[in-house]
Amino acid sequence: MRPGTAVVRTRRVVDARFGSIARRRRWKSTPPMTTRVMSKPPQRDTGIADERAAFSDDDDDGDRAMEDATTSAKTTTTTTEDGITTTRKRGFERGEGGYQSRWWTTKRECVDGRSGSSETKWEKCDCSGYKELGFEKSGFNERGETWWETWREIYCKDEFTGMEHIERSADKWARDAQSKEWQEKWWERYYVNGAVERGVEKNGREVRQAWWEKWGEQYDGEGSVLKWTDKWAENGMGMRWGDKWEERRSKVGSGRKSGETWRVGQDGERWSRTWGEVLSPDGSVRKFGNSTTGESWDTTVFENVYFEKSKPPSWEEVLASSERLLAVELAPRRAAD
């Protein structure tokens, strides 16, 4: 098999990762059972939630009245006939530098303690223009599943350059009763000059088997792009394998691709194949590589080179999708201030 064949297949799979919803390999497990407190783990491969899906205005009523104090909180507790206790708290805090935080917490528990969940949401800001939305969720249920999940979106300006940027992130983890577990982290950073950084880290474990994946993209806002991925796995009996690649493209049309596929056997024997491509603006492509089994090639050809043409959202599009975050503002100052 020619080295380029496996590379193209890998690239097509990975470059699809930053669609509106990533649809890569899903962790297969029995669908969670609905319990009396409706507790279930977060789903895999959902990416970073839109702020309208992650944050709502349900708990806003009555919060503004608490902002006259430096620190205040309100708690309500209800219990249903089947023994589910729901405790809701909301509060407001002030600090130095104009720091302000509004938060909402909802906790649900069964009377027998066999299931429960907790969720805290907040919005923060200060006089520097910093704004933040976020939440934390956790829970457990009768099936023995346990999980936690976080989400955050911030807006701020660089202290020295004054450059604006918006950052979004998510971190999810879950484990079932058989100790099968997974975790994924997502982050996106958008800058006013058009630069973008995005990345993902995922891992999973089932008994002695485990796997990891990392992806990344960087756009400098002027036409240069860097994309990369790294994947590896182990079977718990000494065998490991993986592959990785990197793709760079300049604004003038030149570029470079490189990658490696490798494996280590149970006896410790290692095999690997590395490859590279150098692309010139005139259309010439140098292809080279070698492997531990003696393969070797180095040729130059002229061909139409494919680069992924998808672009990240523009700064204007990011602002339009961060409406609630940008609406966070300082509460009116008290007379004592």
Mean pLDDT across the residues is 84
Instruction: Report the structural category.
Output: mainly beta
Percent helix among the residues?
A: under 10%
Radius of gyration: 25 Å
Please summarize what this structure is.
The protein has 337 residues and is mainly beta. Helices cover 8% and strands 48% of the residues.
Can you offer a commentary on this structure?
With 337 residues, the protein is mainly beta. Helices cover 8% and strands 48% of the residues. It has four helices and 16 strands. The protein has helices at residues 3-15, 51-54, 315-320, 323-327, and strands spanning 71-79, 84-94, 100-110, 116-125, 131-140, 146-157, 164-175, 181-191, 196-206, 209-219, 225-234, 240-249, 255-264, 270-279, 284-291, 296-302. The chain has a 16-stranded antiparallel β-sheet. Strand 11 (225-234) and strand 12 form a beta hairpin. The model is unreliable at 1-35 (pLDDT under 50).
Topology:
Layout: H1 3-15, H2 51-54, E1 71-79, E2 84-94, E3 100-110, E4 116-125, E5 131-140, E6 146-157, E7 164-175, E8 181-191, E9 196-206, E10 209-219, E11 225-234, E12 240-249, E13 255-264, E14 270-279, E15 284-291, E16 296-302, H3 315-320, H4 323-327
Antiparallel strand pairs: 1-2, 2-3, 3-4, 4-5, 5-6, 6-7, 7-8, 8-9, 9-10, 10-11, 11-12, 12-13, 13-14, 14-15, 15-16
